[in-house]
Amino acid sequence: MQIREIKEKDNQTIERIIRRSLESFNLNIPGTAYFDPQLSNLAQYYKEQPNSKYWVVVNEQNEVVGGVGIAPFGQKPGICELQKLYITPEAQGMGLSNDLMKVALGFAKEHYTHCYLETLMKLQAANLLYIKLGFQQLEKPLEGSEHNATDAWFIKELSILD
Length: 162
Prior knowledge:
Elements lengths: L1 E4 L5 H14 L17 H7 L4 E6 L5 E9 L6 E9 L8 H16 L2 E6 L4 H9 L3 E3 L13 E6 L5
């Protein structure tokens, strides 16, 4: 498996992965990433945002099987948001989310002091990974949140020692 930055040719595949994953949890509802306006053009979106990147993981057949992004969070200086961490069902359980998170957090600590994320309690495997990687659960979302369907929020102080 290889992790690389997203390319224009990956847009449709990663959009399909994200939508199918949300559908599998009955989360194809307003207030989730399912309805993000930039979902069909992530390569362009992350290229246009300052201190932002989106990475995909590709398998031996050069097929995109997942991805993750980092972008600024609202107008909060020093805070980025971990976004759109999704892996195909076939590629789950191989440690790819952990690998993607390490790449994303490595980039984030070069540009930010904190990393924030929004998710749902029902995504238990993801939440356990966030906690394992040092994220602290918050009682409510940070001001400026755009995903009002989420019910779990985490933040991590980024340190050079990580």
